[in-house]
Structures are given as C-alpha cells and as structure tokens.
Amino acid sequence: MAGNSQRRGAVRKGGSKKGAVVGSGGKRRRGLEGRGATPPAEMRTKHPAAKRAAAKAKAAQGRSSSSGRPAGRKSDDGPELVLGRNPVVECLRAGVPATALYVAVGTENDDRLTESVRMAADTGISILEVPRTDLDRLSANGLHQGVALQVPPYRYAHPDDLLDRARGAAEPALLVALDNISDPRNLGAVIRSVAAFGGHGVLIPQRRSASVTAVAWRTSAGAAARLPVARATNLTRTLKDWASQGVQIVGLDAGGDTTLDDFDGGEPTVIVVGSEGKGLSRLVRESCDAILSIPMAGPVESLNASVAAGVVLSEVARQRRA
Predict the structure, then answer these.
(1) Are residue 177 and residue 228 in the same domain, yes or no?
(2) Residue 232 located in a structural domain
(3) Where is the composition biased (Basic residues) (predicted)?
(4) Mutual orientation of helices 111-122 and 85-93 as an angle, nearest 10°?
C-alpha cells in the first residue's frame, strides 16, 4: 500500500526528508557536453610543440638582449624601435635618421620629452600620438616610458665600393675591419674614431658581429651618417682580396711580431681589430701581413677593442701629418 515503508525497495535513507534525495546538480549532464574545438598544439602548455615554441622564443629574446638591440627590434634588416626617454633624446641629438616619433596618449611631459618633440619637429620627423597599449605590445618589458623612435635599417656599402672609394681619396687608404666584435657600443666607438682620424670606412662580417643599430648610431655621435660601413659575407676572403690589390693588412694583438713604435702607416692600410676576449680568429690572423701590438707602460695586459683601434688610428694620422 502507499506509504508502506516496510515493502522491499521503499526504505527511506536516514536523516533525509520525504521526497527525492539530493541529485548530481547537473554534473553528469555537463560532463557529456562538448568542450569546443581543440586548441593548436603550440597553445597546449604540456604539448611538445608548445615547449619547443617557448624555447625558441626564449632563445630569440636572449639573442636580442646579448646583441644590444632594443626590445622593439624585429629583424636585422627591418626598422628598429628605440624605447625610453633617454635613449630617444640621445639618438635625436646624435642625428640618427629616424622616420617617426611615437608618443603614448596621456604621457606625462618632462624636459626630455619636450626636447625630443622639438628636435623631431625641427628635422621633419613624423610625430604620432598612439595608445599606450600599442607601445606595450612593441616592448617586451613595457619600459618605454611613453615614447619610442623608429629608425630605418642601415644601408651598408659593398666591400668593393668601400675599397674603391678609399683608394680614390687624396691620402692612402685607411680602413678598419672588425673581427668578433659583438658589442654595438664598440662598433659605434670605432666608427667615431675612424671618422676623427681621417679613415675612410669600416668593414664588418655579415654574421657573428654587431650591426649598425641605434646603439651604434648613438655611440658614434652621428659619425655613422658620414662614414660608410661595409658588410662582408666572408671577412677572410675579403681581406685576402684587398691584400691582392696592394693594401697591407695589419692585425692588432698583444703578442704581435711588431710594435706600434716601429709601424709605418704611410701605405694603404687595413687595421684588423679582434674582440677583447677571443682576439683575432685563426683564419683572419693568418690573412694578416703583420701583427701589431701596442706598447704599454703600466701593468694592464690589453685595451678595449675600440680604445686600441683609436690609439693606432691616432698614430697613423700623426705619421701622415708629418
């Protein structure tokens, strides 16, 4: 009979009120529903493809920071973004050939920003007001301070054109080649010294070398706008080709076979400067006609690459004036 709790299967659970017991709350129904499209492998954090993509991005960021490029740099041959108020105003003071100055909406004004806008307006550089989120996307760490400067890619000369221009000058050719120089500040300082002491240009390898970025522009104090820089596909082959055309190739090294006191810089000369740590590479060293060392009175074993280049260039300029 109805309500007979003694019949089989009609036992009420203890502590429950009359009626249906607590159900699943719809969990079983939602569990049967679809979860949508499967995301790409690169977006699944535990997928091997995602791990490879993360490692590749990390390696690219490491190469960017080690080479001294700002976070906005996209490629070696693309435009570069200089981020931050001090770097931007220094580039404008140095005469870097920028194409646009970006200022974030609502950026607080100060002397550096005022000077940057004034110099950009005076030189005909476009001044664009953009949302702050646009600059956030262009900088890896967001430290743009509301301002960015776009710099076009540097136009390198061809090594043959560089030598022809140097040989056509009134004085004997004087060029500097850089081997294993990875710091753009050293490159900019060498460009500045070559221009200051009457040199005709700088040669760098296409790979494993600092390039003419905004950092090099700023360090050169604008000399990169007046002095040609050539990029060689193979530095050793280019040096051997120049030597066959009557140019002496002189490498700088602390253990050289001759000193700067005995060096004759009156002939057409290419001074080859190696990195401070590794020095000249083996093949480049073997391509040199002589290895030159700088005599030093103090206990210092070596000089910074750009400083060593400046010392030798100064001595060559003195000899040629005499």
Answers:
(1) yes
(2) yes
(3) 46-55
(4) 40
